[in-house]
Amino acid sequence: MKARKSKAADGCDHTFRAIYDHEVEWESDDARGLLKLPSGVKVKVLNYDPVMKRIDFKLRFPAGYVEPAHTHNSWHSILVTKGRMCVAGKDLRPGDYVFGWDIRHGPYEYPDGCEVFVVDMGDAAHVWQKEDFLRHRNTWKPRTAAGKKGVLAHLKKRNSGKV
Q: Does any domain span residue 26?
């Protein structure tokens, strides 16, 4: 049964959706320019309402990835679904939660890779300083072989200044 579009008086899309995960392809964040993060992040957009400025999506961070300390003109709720997210002195695992708004937060480290589900309201574009990001020293140690390899690759990339 195909979902019918339902535009309400408020202009928002009220269409009911039930989506199989495998039906939505992973794409590079660069493809839509949603987050404006250093390269390497994959995005799976599940729902987007430009009137409401709400986007529901999954993110996949490769092993070793560091998300710079940042701000944005939105709030987000994040649920870790796979792997590890290390932020604010916490080693978060599947089922753990993060909330952020327009106050600077991060950096986030993903020493062994991570997938998260995010609900974002507003402009999801990250505002971060390249110099701060390049100076970042990883705090969290990887626990997997893939993580060790990923951390080394991301350190090499950051040290080269190519983000």
A: yes
